[in-house]
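User: Could you go from structure to sequence for me? I need the amino acid at each position, not a summary. Structure tokens:
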């Protein structure tokens, strides 16, 4: 009798082991996990509230490496999965050329306590600003079949952007600084020791910027080119939610530190839109084929 009970217990353990292995294998081979690599290019603007100026946008680039996981469908373990999440890391550049013309006036007080108006007169002053961010996205994804070999995939989420390169380069024109005392109807100029001078030529330096947060979205077509690789072609848009300018004292000290450090600009929010291309690689399919020793 005890031997009979032991046989039944061993049979149950065997069945339980087979069931666990079957479910585990099913979960492994039905998973949808993707490695996604893409490059993109488009108009990446530094939208600002600049006074007395215009700008010309430049084409910039983005490079991204991401991981996507798609959740199981309620229709069953092997049913098509539509919803997923994505995260990763990337590089994204922004840049433009600003041209300043006109007069800027700021109330100020001199060392003797007298009120005056600090004036900057721009004459075709040109400056290029260039930013490079390391980006970390977190996005919700949705995909659906469009027909044989095609799937529509879209992502919506947030992206943290950390500046790693932030430079400006003045390329031409000139500007002059003066001090106007209304009570004496007097304008002081050509006094470098008091910060009143004329600036020409070229100047370079670092921009005063800080991390910013984007809202991000993209949409594209997944084109199957093998059992575990899809070609991706799509479009993207990124919009800065926070001011990327670092809060600094914008009081003129007689040293030029770029337009972003001047009273001309108080807010900068990066905006980007463009096209990108890359691949989605089903990492689970690769593991499966490695174990099976085949790549067809």
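Assistant: Here is the amino acid at each position, in order:
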């Amino acid at each position: 009798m005890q031997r009979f009970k032991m046989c039944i217990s061993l049979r149950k353990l065997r069945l339980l082991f087979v069931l666990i292995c079957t479910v585990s294998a099913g979960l492994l081979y039905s998973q949808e996990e993707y490695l996604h690599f893409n490059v993109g290019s488009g108009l990446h603007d530094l939208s600002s509230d600049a006074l007395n100026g215009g700008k010309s946008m430049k084409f910039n680039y983005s490079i991204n490496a991401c991981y996507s996981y798609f959740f199981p469908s309620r229709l069953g373990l092997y049913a098509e999965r539509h919803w997923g999440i994505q995260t990763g890391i990337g590089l994204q550049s922004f840049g433009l050329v600003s041209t300043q013309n006109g007069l800027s006036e700021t109330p100020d007080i001199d060392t003797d306590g007298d009120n005056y108006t600090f004036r900057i007169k721009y004459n075709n002053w040109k400056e290029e600003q260039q930013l490079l961010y390391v980006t970390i996205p977190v996005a919700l994804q949705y995909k659906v079949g469009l027909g044989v070999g095609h799937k529509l995939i879209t992502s919506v989420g947030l992206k943290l952007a950390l500046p790693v390169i932030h430079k400006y380069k003045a390329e031409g024109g000139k500007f002059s600084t003066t001090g106007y005392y209304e009570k004496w109807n007097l304008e002081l100029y050509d006094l470098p020791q008091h910060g009143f001078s004329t600036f020409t030529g070229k100047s370079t330096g670092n921009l005063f910027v800080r991390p910013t947060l984007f809202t991000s979205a993209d949409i594209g077509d997944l084109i199957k080119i093998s059992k575990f690789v899809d070609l991706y072609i799509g479009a993207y848009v990124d919009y800065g939610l926070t001011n990327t300018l670092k809060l600094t004292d914008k009081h003129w000290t007689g040293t030029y530190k770029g337009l972003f450090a001047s009273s001309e600009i108080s807010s900068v929010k990066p905006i980007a839109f463009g096209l990108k291309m890359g691949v989605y690689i089903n990492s689970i399919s690769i593991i499966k084929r490695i174990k099976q020793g085949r790549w067809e």
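One structural detail worth keeping in mind: The CA atoms of residues 120 and 177 lie 5 Å apart.
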